[in-house]
Amino acid sequence: MILVEPVRDKNILIITPQGPLEQADFERTATEVELCLDANGKLNGLMIIIESFPGWKSFEAVAAHLKFVSGHHRQIERLAVVTRSRFLRIIPAVARYFVHPEVRLFDIGQRAPALSWLETGRR
Fold first, then answer.
1. Residue 54's pLDDT is what?
2. Whole-prediction pTM value?
3. Which of 4, 38, 56, 120 is the most buried (most CB within 10 A)?
4. Other CB atoms within 10 Å distance of the CB of residue 83
């Protein structure tokens, strides 16, 4: 399950995985992204708040995740990963080769600085 929290006045989405990821999670997230794109043409930022990676519930969930990324990454300006997971700290280094958004890592207690960076592009 993914909790999706739109911050419409800043054109930002905050997503928080709360268990193994399901196909419906990515469909719901895609709908929210598309609402922002319809209103603004792009999404200023996407924040992922994730203690540790919960995995996927099924192969269909993996496919939906890949479809979501490939279908939306070019319309997202910045991606903030807010985590304490050592494993997830590699995301910025790997992501820059595969996705459009600028990716930054923030410690789990740095939600406000992450939100500010998503909005302004400055840290």
1. 85
2. 0.86
3. 56
4. 20
Burial 45-69 (b: 16+ CB within 10 A, else e): bbbbbbeeeeebbeeebeebbeebe
pLDDT of residue 16: 94
d(CA 19, CA 100): 27
Q: What pLDDT, on the 0 to 100 scale, is given for residue 92?
A: 63
CA distances to 8, 9, 113 from 99, in Å: 23, 25, 22
Structure tokens at 87: 């494993």
* 21/61 Cα distance (integer angstroms): 6
Number of Cβ within a 10 Å radius of residue 103: 20
